[in-house]
Design brief:
Strand order of the largest sheet: 3-4-2-5-1-6-7
Length: about 270
Amino acid sequence: MRAPHSGPRVLAIANQKGGVGKTTTAVNLATALAACGKRVLIIDLDPQGNASTGVGLDWRRRGPTVYEALLGTTALKDCVVETPVPNMAIVPSSVDLSGAEIELVAAERRDTRLQSALQQERDRWDYVLIDCPPALGILTVNALVAADAVLVPLQAEFYALEGLSHLLRTIERVRRALNPSLTLQGVVLTMYDRRNNLCDLVAKDVRSYLGDRVYRTVIPRNVRVSEAPSHGKPVLLYDLNCAGAQAYVHLAGELLRREEGDEATTALAS
């Protein structure tokens, strides 16, 4: 539960395991929130740059990226690029970001670089979604320090809980040492196949472990979701009526209701 504060709600979209729908969730949840009238900024903190590609941003148009913002050579506001989605912009990534893990090792304030960079942009956005790399290194720690909360996309597979436990321990360490206000915003089950009994078993295990922190909305396996990035579009623009797009619309609605509920509860308690 969070206390009210000025500026945007910053969510780190994190999972140390690759291929779980993390970038897909960041791009499409951001698009759905923007469609709800929220001003949304995506920060592509993954050196692969898939979130940038997924919103149709050509490599040649990226200019300064989050890499320059982390190193302090360019202000974050000068790295922001508008997307074709109204109310939604992105701070792109580039392959240079892969070197940041090494370059920042001996740097001052190495864990708070992104937090400091975001201070310049706090009045422009309602939500900032940080697409983290599939690792728990310096880049992800920067995201966790800058974030208010963590949203975890979790593939419904056999090793899901083991990986989730590892991530939750990392979140707790960052909370104790660097960001006391960091919370788990929620877990969203991705690539869900209702024909697969294992998906149901994993879902039951995760829900029994984390209760209502697991979203009711699940993101199904859907070919249109997989196709959309190759066209440089969020799936909500590529095929709004497909099951995957509708799932992200429902996820955004559930997230907003959850956020508003937390705010109302905090207000009543104060």
